[in-house]
Design goal:
Order of helices and strands of chain B: EEHHHHHHHHHHHEEHHHHHHHHH
Structural class of chain C: mainly alpha
Order of helices and strands of chain C: HHHEEHEHHHHHHHHH
Largest interface: B-C, 86 and 90 residues
CATH superfamily of the largest domain in chain B: MetI-like
Structural class of chain B: mainly alpha
Chains: A alpha/beta, B mainly alpha, C mainly alpha
Radius of gyration of chain B: 34 Å
CATH architecture of the largest domain in chain B: Orthogonal Bundle
CATH architecture of the largest domain in chain C: Orthogonal Bundle
CATH superfamily of the largest domain in chain C: MetI-like
Mean pLDDT of chain B: 84
Number of strands of chain C: 3
CATH class of the largest domain in chain C: Mainly Alpha
Radius of gyration of chain C: 28 Å
Shape of chain C: flat
Low-confidence stretches of chain B: 1-10
Number of helices of chain C: 13
Number of domains of chain B: 2
Number of domains of chain C: 2
Strand order of the largest sheet of chain C: 2-1-3
CATH topology of the largest domain in chain B: MetI-like fold
Largest sheet of chain B: 2 strands, antiparallel
CATH class of the largest domain in chain B: Mainly Alpha
Strand content of chain B: under 5%
Distance between the termini of chain C: 54 Å
Helix content of chain B: over 70%
Oligomer: heterotrimer
Strand content of chain C: 5-15%
């Protein structure tokens, strides 16, 4: 499969992480083709509850590899909930449960009891609404995930730090102060640091929960630019309130309303020619 | 096509092999470890309650038994007569007081020499002697009866000891030895016969006593001035009332019945409402918590009387008025005071403050202060002052927090309307933080009432209900407290005895009192949080 | 003077409100300084009188025997026109030399000579042991309650109970320790009983404070770490505990001050009025845990309540009080400074 190969190729090998990875896969040329998108995430008739209140109703959605998908919709429509379902961050909240349906990533139902949620989260990274760099140095922030997995050699860590920071378009700005606190950066830089931190562990999928909501327009533009670059390597799902942002940087868009998926299509279509009147009302700014 | 992902379908299934211990992963082991610690902590903290109850509850059974023996052995009977005698003693004290007043009048107003004054009082002295002597027969009777009933009680105690001895021997399996232990059941009816046989003698003695008193009263000498005469009249009136009570006493003795059962609730009420804490007495031990409770309460009230204005005042000053430099210096300084170990403060009270306060009270210029001058160095006031110093940091810190929690916007809004700082503090900030301040005061109370060393060292340790007729001067009397009594007596009691258990019950009272104070304080704070939003 | 001629509309004028304000502020200020004055009076009295015991005029300026000797009785008598004061051992030696001295009228004051070494040792042992127990149990329990436990009615009840237990008087804990460790477990008056009694006394404080510190660590740290594929334990160890540690540390130092300063709980669980042997002079190792010790706070209680106040006993009384006060004060000051320092450093 091309996607898997290219994915691996763009990164340095981490044999201890992926022992089962066939050696043949690494030999493929990078980004040679953009074949017909392959289904990576398959959400099937999902019902989700916070305690007694239902947050998602019968959501079915298929997301493609190496595309940017935007989830849009008014507050409380369930888009963030769905996002947090994808790496099971909802486990941290008491009383949440998937009542019906399934989420399959590469054909594996991630809610199966024998799923190792830690492994899942290594594959599915996340960037939060409020940038949350740890109160450690920039360097330590980025190597945090790798060190958890046992990577300790300095050379390897240095390499990953530079690569991730370059990947997050932050290298030039911070290369001289890698060992100063991540909290000393500006808001936009902090958010990009969080993105760098997420890509350092080489996930396949990056979830972004309103990554720009706390940033000024300039910083937002930088992050959007970054998303554009990242999509050559990662599958990105972004939750946003900002419809221009969705239009600018996503390939596909899903519109949610009160816990239901209303419409899911190519971004162009959603914004130019939505098939559902509710979608149209929302994207044209008549409510929400 | 590259090798399919399907070849490694479930990396995030149980992809890695994991280390297992007793069927748990490492993470689960860690969770169990933490959980185990939490369980231990919670269990131990629960054990506190259980142990207090375990040791304390036995008290009520033992106390009921003690009360039963008090009745069956006739101690109660004798105490009825003794009460009559004690009342008479109180009347004689009144007379001595009257004599002192006359003496003072003669020496100070009339400027007589002491000898001459005494001569003038010869008539009064004769009167007083006759009054005092009248009780003679009754006193003799009480003293005889005391011996009788003490003997009965001793006999009973002996029997109980024997029974215990036999029980132990049986428990050890030494049946033969156990059979040798002689047990003679005490036949209370028979034993009490001589006691009850004295009834006619008592009635006779009482009649004689009443007759003599009436005769003496009739011959009461006249007083030199109206003021003293009024006192004499009052004395006559009191004696009249005393005499009028005689038939009731006789009636009580007549109807007294050793077989009347001691109701179960009396063991509780005799503790909660008992006005005497008498231990290791040859006569009868009483375990009444009232004197101790009042002692604790009085000390706490005095402490809070000083600590609340000071603590809250200081909190307002630091939070609202002080310069930043003052804030920076004074806050840690007051917190530092809270680190004074209580035993050091107690020592300070014994070594310095007690004497200093007494010296101060003996200043003539301060004689107007109620209770001044006093001679007891260690008393409620001394302990209260030191406890105030302990409570101030608690109250200060919590009250300051409460003031800090008032949203800035309240204050700004008030200033914007042209209020000055005092008005803002009084009308906006204080009301908004009132519940926080009240809970601070409550927690200060909790701290004070539970404090042991200061009261043990400085409260005077006299087990008696302070004399409230003295008005405010009551604060210069010594008291004993609930915490103090535990600390003082716990080391000396026989384990498992009624006294030992009584101390645990006092501990229980303290325990629930502090829980109640804490709980109420928290409730108040929580309500306040909601009201702010 | 010219300024007075032309008052503008915002001119400050004396008014009743202003006078009131000044008077009230004066009162509040007076309250504050009165508190400080009282605290200072107590502190300085003890420092002034106590330093006469623990310092001396000639080198090495510190009365080392006071710190290294055990308490002894003091004997005061007149000998050949001079007033002599001697500790117990010295006095006995003196009598051997001058047998006549035994006949001289001698006043003796118990505990008034020698030093307080065994008390210091005992206090240190008590504090170290009980804080170890309390910290292990308390911090772990707090981690469980805050990180692992699901928030249910039971956990809320447990929290409430712990919070309330923090206000229970220390004497009640002493009573509990006496009933449970000394009698029920049969440990008698021993180090072990004292350790557990003191540990359980500070346990609620430590659990509550540790939980507060853990709660103060932002949720984002945990989520961020988990989203990177860390396990729960890795998250706690690397990304929660390090940031909660300063707060936990502060509270535990305050706990130390409390443990060191309390007398009531050890009165009948661990403290001896007097004990000749030092704690490590035991026959077998296990005896170490089952021996009572002398402790500073209890010694102060004993010397201030059981012996008369006079110029001879005053020295040991104030000296002991000062040493004890200084120890506790240093611990408390350290925690206050540490907390203020950390408050400025850790801001999220």
């Amino acid at each position: 499969m091309v996607t898997a190969a290219t994915l691996m190729e763009t990164r340095s090998p981490a044999p201890n992480l992926r022992p089962t990875m066939p050696a043949a896969a690494t030999g493929q040329p990078a980004g040679t083709a953009a074949p017909a998108a392959e289904v990576l995430i398959d959400i099937d008739h999902l019902d989700f509850f916070y305690g007694a209140s239902q947050a998602l109703y019968d959501v079915s959605l298929r997301l493609d590899t190496r595309k940017v998908t935007a989830f849009i919709g008014p507050s409380g429509c369930g888009k963030s909930t769905l996002l947090r379902c994808l790496n099971r961050m909802n486990d941290l909240i008491d009383g949440t449960r998937v009542a019906k349906g399934s989420i399959k990533i590469r054909g594996v139902d991630i809610n199966r009891p024998d799923v190792d949620v830690i492994e899942l989260r290594k594959r599915v990274g996340m960037v939060f609404q409020k940038s949350n760099p740890f109160p450690k140095s920039i360097y330590e922030n980025i190597t945090y995930g790798l060190r958890l997995q046992g990577a300790t050699t300095k050379a390897r860590l240095d390499e990953v730090v530079e690569k991730s920071l370059r990947g997050a378009a932050l290298w030039e700005e911070v290369k001289d102060r890698l060992h100063t606190s991540g909290l000393g950066l500006s808001g936009g830089q902090q958010q990009r640091l969080c993105i760098a931190r997420a890509i350092a562990v080489e996930p396949e999928i990056i979830l972004m929960d309103e990554p720009c909501s706390a940033l000024d327009p300039l910083a937002t533009a930088k992050v959007e630019e970054l998303i554009h670059e990242l999509k050559t390597k990662f599958t990105i799902i972004i939750v946003t309130h900002n419809m221009q942002q969705a239009a600018r940087c996503s390939d596909k868009t899903a519109f949610f309303y009160i816990g239901r998926l209303i419409e899911y299509a190519d971004t162009q279509q959603i914004f130019m020619n939505p098939s559902n009147p509710q979608t149209e009302a929302y994207v044209s700014g008549r409510f929400g | 096509m590259e090798p399919s992902r399907a070849a490694e379908p479930a990396e995030f299934l149980t992809g890695r092999r994991k280390f297992h211990l007793f069927g748990l992963t490492i993470d689960e082991c860690i969770k169990v470890f933490f959980g185990g610690n939490a369980v231990v902590s919670v269990v131990v903290l629960a054990l506190i309650t259980i142990f207090l109850f375990k040791e304390g509850f036995g008290f009520f059974g033992l106390n009921q038994q003690s009360l039963r023996v008090y009745r069956q052995a006739g101690l109660e009977y004798v105490d009825i007569i003794r009460a009559q005698q004690d009342d008479h003693t109180a009347l004689t004290r009144y007379l001595s007081d009257l004599r002192l007043r006359q003496f003072n009048y003669f020496t100070q107003q009339q400027h007589l020499a002491p000898a001459e004054a005494n001569q003038r009082l010869a008539g009064f002295d004769e009167f007083a002697d006759r009054f005092g002597g009248a009780v003679g027969p009754i006193r003799g009777l009480v003293s005889d009866l005391t011996e009788t009933v003490t003997a009965i009680k001793d006999k009973f105690t002996n029997t109980e000891n024997r029974k215990e001895e036999r029980r132990q021997l049986l428990a050890e399996g030494r049946t033969a030895d156990a059979a040798k232990v002689e047990i003679t059941a005490v036949d209370f009816a028979a034993e009490l016969k001589p006691l009850l046989a004295t009834r006619p003698a008592y009635v006779e003695a009482n009649a004689e006593f009443a007759r003599q008193l009436s005769a003496v009263i009739a011959s009461a000498p006249a007083m030199p001035i109206p003021d003293l005469q009024a006192r004499m009249d009052r004395f006559k009136q009191l004696t009249g009332e005393y005499l009028a009570g005689f038939p009731a006493v006789e009636q009580k003795l007549k109807t007294w019945d050793y077989t009347r059962p001691v109701p179960w609730y009396q063991t509780v009420t005799s503790f909660i409402l008992g006005r005497d804490w008498v231990t290791a007495s040859f006569w009868q031990d009483w375990y009444g918590v009232i004197p101790l409770f009042i002692g604790s309460l009085m000390v706490s009230v005095v402490a809070l009387f000083f600590a609340v204005p000071l603590g809250v005042g200081a909190a307002i000053y630091i939070n609202q008025i002080a310069t930043p430099l003052e804030q920076k210096l004074i806050k840690p300084a007051i917190e530092f005071i809270s680190a004074f170990p209580s035993v050091v403060l107690g020592f300070f009270g014994v070594a310095v403050l007690g004497q200093a306060l007494r010296a101060l009270s003996q200043q003539p210029s301060l004689a107007w202060v109620p209770g001044f001058p006093f001679s007891e160095r260690l008393n409620i006031l001394t302990a209260g002052c030191l406890l105030a110093l302990l409570a101030v940091p608690t109250i200060f810190t919590l009250a300051e927090d409460a003031l800090n929690n008032v949203p800035r916007s309240f204050k700004e809004a008030s200033f914007a309307l042209g209020a000055n700082r005092l008005q803002t503090i009084v009308k906006i900030i204080m009301p908004a933080s009132l519940s926080g301040i009240i809970s601070a005061v409550l927690l200060g109370l909790g701290r004070v009432i539970g404090e042991t060393m200061v009261v043990l060292l400085c409260a005077g340790n006299r087990i008696a209900i302070p004399d409230f007729t003295a008005g405010l001067a009551v604060i210069t009397q010594p008291v004993h407290t609930m915490t103090g009594i535990i600390a003082q007596e716990m080391g000396e009691v026989v384990r498992g005895s009624i006294h030992y258990r009584a101390l645990f019950v006092v501990g229980l009272v303290l325990f629930f009192l502090s829980l109640l104070i804490n709980y109420v304080a928290q409730r108040i704070v929580r309500r306040y949080r909601i009201s702010i939003g | 003077m010219a300024a007075l001629v032309n008052p503008h509309i915002f001119q400050t004028r004396p008014s009743a409100a202003r006078r009131w304000e000044r008077a009230c502020f004066g009162l509040f200020g007076a309250a504050t300084y009165l508190v400080l004055f009282c605290g200072a009076a107590v502190f300085l009295t003890i420092v002034a009188k106590g330093s006469r015991t623990i310092f001396k005029a000639e080198a090495p300026f510190i009365n080392t025997t006071f710190f290294t000797d055990a308490p002894e009785s003091l004997y005061v008598f007149e000998w050949q026109g001079k007033k002599l004061e001697m500790g117990d051992r010295e006095h006995r030696a003196f009598i051997e030399q001058h047998p006549d001295a035994a006949k001289v009228k001698t006043e003796s004051y118990i505990y008034a000579a020698g030093g307080i070494f065994p008390c210091i040792v005992g206090t240190v042992l008590l504090v170290v042991g009980s804080m170890t127990i309390a910290l292990v149990l308390g911090v772990c329990a707090a981690v469980y309650l805050n990180e692992y436990a699901r928030d249910g009615a039971f956990i809320r009840f447990v929290r409430l109970a712990i919070l309330n237990l923090a206000g229970v008087p220390s004497i009640v804990f002493g009573l509990f320790g006496f009933g449970m460790f000394v009698i029920f477990f049969g440990w008698n008056v021993s180090l072990l009983s004292g350790w557990f009694t003191l540990a359980f006394m500070v346990l609620p404080v430590i659990i509550t404070a540790s939980e507060e510190s853990l709660k103060a660590v932002p949720k984002g740290f945990r989520e961020g770490s988990l989203a990177l594929g860390a396990t729960k334990w890795q998250t706690i160890r690397k990304n929660v505990l390090p940031y909660a540690l300063p707060g936990i540390l502060t509270s535990s130092i305050l706990g130390i001050a409390r443990v060191a300063g309390e007398t009531a709980p050890i009165m009948f669980t661990a403290a001896y009025v007097v004990r000749d042997k030092l704690p490590w002079q035991v026959e077998k190792f296990s005896d170490f845990f089952f021996q009572g010790v002398m402790a500073l706070p209890y010694h102060i209680y004993v010397v201030s309540s059981k012996i008369p106040q006079n110029e001879y006993t005053e020295r040991v009384q104030y000296g002991t009080a000062l040493v004890f006060l200084l120890i506790v004060a240093v611990i408390a000051t350290a925690s206050i400074l540490l907390r203020n320092n950390l408050r400025n450093r850790y801001k999220w």
